[in-house]
Amino acid sequence: MKKVACPHCGQDWIHQYRRKDTGAQFFMCPECESLWLDQDEIEEPTELYLSEYMTQHDAASAWEVIEQVD
Ligand SMILES: [Zn+2]
Q1: Quick one: which H or E segment has residue 68?
Q2: pLDDT tens across 49-61, in order?
Q3: CA of 65 to the centre of ligand 1 (A)
Q4: Which residues surround ligand 1, an ion (CB under 5 A)?
């Protein structure tokens, strides 16, 4: 996957992740937890965050059910 710096915080690269419970894949900045569902949109700001995507988890436990893919 190409290296794209987070358009929100600029502190890290966007990485690909996978939910261990559903297998769904997404893209996220591990620094600020900004989240994208479509790789084509990761160079633009998003309104979605990890805690909003993983609605059944709080921000801390959400990390326990995802794993980095790339
Ligand atoms: Zn970020």
Answers
A1: strand 66-68
A2: 999 999 877 767 8
A3: 20
A4: 6, 8-9, 29, 31-32, 34
